[in-house]
Backbone:
């Protein structure tokens, strides 16, 4: 047998066998690649759905903490009114680590990243206030407004993720109406802002001479 492959005919036969083997391996490789392509979309969908659920839970935890924060009234030191403390820790957003947000698509993935940045901006803005100024530099009002608006935005993101991936968060007690509570707070804040912007009327005195006489 070895002598046969040493002849010219044997050498040509060996080359044909090697070529056929290479062709078979190449075909098998392409088949495996196609199989991988067919399998990956399903795996990608499962990864996206898992990330969606974990993100919804993280956002929901933040909503709960922010909702509690806007209802948490500070306790002041009777000996020093500049010193105060809250009863609850500050809300912390903890999104999944090393997440591939592109699994959500460009728009929704970017919204998640922007939300994380908004949370950081709010925290940094509060830290920049001078609490030694009168009324603590508006710290308490800005804190309530900031957390209320962030919580409302987080609830919008939860609704978008839920719709996109057909997911539902666990039920909450009927009396725990976060959306209604936040809407009431934001309505009150908007109303207070509108009242501040309204010009003073009534019997307010002025040293400006009127251009037109009042009608009798």
Residues:
């Amino acid at each position: 047998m070895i002598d046969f492959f040493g002849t010219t005919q044997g050498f040509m036969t060996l080359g044909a066998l090697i070529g056929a083997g290479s062709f078979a391996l190449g075909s098998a490789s392409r088949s495996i690649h196609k199989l991988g392509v067919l399998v990956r979309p399903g795996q990608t969908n499962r990864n996206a759905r898992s990330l969606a659920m974990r993100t919804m839970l993280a956002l929901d935890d933040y909503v709960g903490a922010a909702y509690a924060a806007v209802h948490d009234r500070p306790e002041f030191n009777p000996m020093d009114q500049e010193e105060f403390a809250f009863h609850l820790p500050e809300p912390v957003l903890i999104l999944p680590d090393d997440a591939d947000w592109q699994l959500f698509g460009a728009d929704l993935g970017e919204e998640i990243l922007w939300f994380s940045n908004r949370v950081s901006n709010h925290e940094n803005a509060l830290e920049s206030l001078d609490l030694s100024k009168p009324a603590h530099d508006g710290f308490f009002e800005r804190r309530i407004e900031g957390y209320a608006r962030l919580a409302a935005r987080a609830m919008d993101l939860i609704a978008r993720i839920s719709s996109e991936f057909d997911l539902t968060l666990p039920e909450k007690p009927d009396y725990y109406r976060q959306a209604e509570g936040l809407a009431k707070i934001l309505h009150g804040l908007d109303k207070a802002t509108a009242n501040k912007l309204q010009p003073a009327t009534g019997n307010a005195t002025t040293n400006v001479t009127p251009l037109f006489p009042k009608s009798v």
In short: The helical segments are 2-6, 8-70, 106-128, 139-165, 178-197. Residues 34-39 have pLDDT under 50 and may be disordered.
